[in-house]
Design a protein that fits this description.
single chain, alpha/beta, Rossmann fold, Tyrosyl-Transfer RNA Synthetase, Structural Genomics Hypothetical 15.5 Kd Protein In mrcA-pckA Intergenic Region, Chain A, 6-stranded mixed beta sheet, 19 helices, 16 strands, about 15% strand, elongated
C-alpha cells in the first residue's frame, strides 16, 4: 500500500497543528507506527476524541500502522493538561471496564486485522509492575525539574497547586513512548496540541535512553466559529455510547452545526474526498436552508459510530419531530430512541377508556404528563394544540376510537404543539 501523501491529506483537512522536523521524511520513507493515547476516565469516548481517532484512520488508510494506547496505568494518575484541579483517581476495576468500552468503539474506525492491523495496547502492562526506584534511576535522571516546570501543563497549575502525582504524569507519558518504541517499533506520537509538552518529553527520553530519533504531530483543539468548546450540547458532553447519548441526539448534534463550520467538520470527521466536500460547501452557500453539508456530516458520522440501522432510526425520529413522518412507519429501533428522547410512560388501556370502543383524549394527556389536570387537558384540546399519532385532534374531538390507535408494540405518540411529544405504551 502507498505510504506517501498522508501528511498532505492531513494538512488539507486541517488536521495538523504542528510537527517535528523529521515528520515529512519518515512518513514518506515507508510504513511508520504511530500512536495516540486515550484516557480511560469513562467507559465511552466522546466526540472530542474523534479528531485524533480520524488521524489514526488516515494513517492506516495510507499504509502506516496505528497504535491506540489506553492509559490503564496513567488513568489511575490523571493528566493535568487543560485542568485547573486534581482529577478523581480511578480504581483498577473502573479502568478495566472503561478500557473494554473504548476498544469496542475504536473498532468502528480502525481495522484490527490483517497485515496493517491496528494495535491496542494498555500501558498498565508495564507501568503497574514498574518499581519506583527503577523508574527514578532509569527515567527520572534524564529530566531536570526546571525542564518540567517550563511545560504548559505544569505552568498553568502552579498558582492553584499541583500534586507530585500529577506533576509526574509527564514522565510517565514519556516512558510510554519509550516502551512503545521498544515493544511495537513506534516512532511517532500524535495527540492534541495541548499535549505537545508531554510528547516532546517522550522524544527527549527516547533520544537520551536509546539514541533514536522519534517524532511528534499534533492536531488542533476544535472550537466552533462562535468560539464555543466543541463536543458540548445542552445536555452536556456528546458521547459515542448510545446509552449516554442516543443516536438521535448524536445525529442532531451534527445536524445543528453552524454553516461556517460545516465544511471544516466534513474535513475533520468524515472520509469524503475534497471534491465532495467542496460541492457540499457550495450547495450550503447557495441554499443554506437545505443544510446539505450538515445532513451529509450527520449521516456519515452517525453511521460510522452507531451503524446503519441506528442512523435510519435517528432520521425517522427527526422526521417525526420536525417533518411529516407517519409514526406507523417507525422501526423498533426508532421507538427505542423515541422512548429515550420523549416523556415515556406506561399506562393500562382501562385507565384511558371512555367506553369499550373509545379512549378519553384528556386522560391520555394526563397519563403522558402533557397536561396537569382534566381542565388543562380540555383547554388544550379546545385550542387545537393536540395531536395523537401525528393526527391533529379537533377542538370538539374528546374521544377517539381504539381501533387502529395503538402503534407497534402498543405505543401512542402524544403531541402538544409542534415540538412537545410524549410516548405512551399501553398495556391491556
Amino acid at each position: 500500500m502507498q505510504t506517501t501523501g498522508v501528511l498532505e491529506e492531513l494538512q488539507w483537512r486541517g488536521l495538523v497543528y504542528q510537527y517535528t522536523d523529521g515528520v515529512p521524511g519518515v512518513l514518506a520513507a515507508g510504513p511508520v507506527s504511530g500512536y495516540i493515547g486515550f484516557d480511560p476516565t469513562a467507559s465511552s469516548l466522546h466526540v472530542g476524541s474523534l479528531l485524533p481517532i480520524m488521524v489514526l484512520v488516515h494513517l492506516q488508510r495510507h499504509g502506516h500502522k496505528p497504535v491506540a494506547l489506553v492509559g490503564g496505568g496513567t488513568g489511575m494518575i490523571g493528566d493535568p493538561s487543560g485542568r485547573s484541579s486534581e482529577r478523581q483517581l480511578l480504581t483498577t476495576e473502573q479502568v478495566a471496564e472503561n478500557t473494554a468500552g473504548i476498544r469496542a468503539q475504536l473498532e468502528r474506525f480502525l481495522d484490527f486485522s490483517g497485515p496493517g492491523a491496528a494495535r491496542m495496547v494498555d500501558n498498565a502492562s508495564w507501568l503497574t509492575s514498574l518499581s519506583m526506584v527503577e523508574f527514578l534511576r532509569d527515567t527520572g535522571k534524564h529530566f531536570t525539574v526546571n525542564y518540567m516546570l517550563q511545560k504548559d501543563s505544569v505552568k498553568s497549575r502552579m498558582d492553584a497547586g499541583i500534586s507530585y502525582t500529577e506533576f509526574s504524569y509527564m514522565l510517565l507519558q514519556a516512558y510510554d513512548f519509550l516502551e512503545l518504541r521498544r515493544r511495537e517499533g513506534v516512532t511517532l506520537q500524535l495527540g492534541g496540541s495541548d499535549q505537545w509538552g508531554n510528547i516532546t518529553a517522550g522524544i527527549e527520553l527516547i533520544r537520551r535512553a536509546d539514541g533514536v530519533e522519534a517524532n511528534a504531530l499534533t492536531v488542533p483543539l476544535v472550537t466552533s466559529s462562535s468560539g464555543e468548546k466543541f463536543g458540548k450540547s445542552v445536555a452536556g458532553a456528546v458521547w459515542l455510547d448510545a446509552e449516554r447519548t442516543s443516536p438521535y441526539a448524536f445525529y442532531q448534534f451534527w445536524l445543528k452545526t453552524e454553516d461556517r463550520d460545516a465544511g471544516r467538520y466534513l474535513r475533520f470527521f468524515t472520509l469524503l474526498d475534497r471534491s465532495e466536500i467542496e460541492a457540499l460547501e457550495a450547495a450550503t452557500e447557495s441554499a443554506p436552508e437545505k443544510r446539505a453539508a450538515q445532513q451529509a456530516l450527520a449521516r456519515d458520522v452517525t453511521r460510522r459510530v452507531h451503524g446503519e440501522a441506528a442512523l435510519q432510526a435517528a432520521e425517522q425520529v427527526s422526521n417525526l419531530y420536525f417533518g411529516g413522518l407517519d409514526p406507523r412507519e417507525l422501526t423498533d429501533e426508532a421507538f427505542a430512541i423515541l422512548r429515550s428522547e420523549s416523556r415515556f410512560k406506561e399506562v393500562a388501556l382501562a385507565d384511558l377508556a371512555f367506553d369499550e370502543n373509545r379512549v378519553d383524549v384528556a386522560k391520555m394527556l394526563i397519563a403522558s404528563e402533557s397536561a396537569a389536570s382534566t381542565g388543562a387537558a380540555k383547554k388544550l384540546i379546545e385550542q387545537g394544540s393536540i395531536s395523537i399519532n401525528k393526527q391533529k385532534v379537533r377542538g370538539d374531538e374528546r374521544y377517539l376510537p381504539t381501533e387502529g390507535l395503538l402503534l407497534r408494540g402498543g405505543h401512542i405518540v402524544v403531541g402538544k404543539g409542534k415540538k412537545d411529544f410524549a410516548l405512551l405504551r399501553v398495556r391491556d
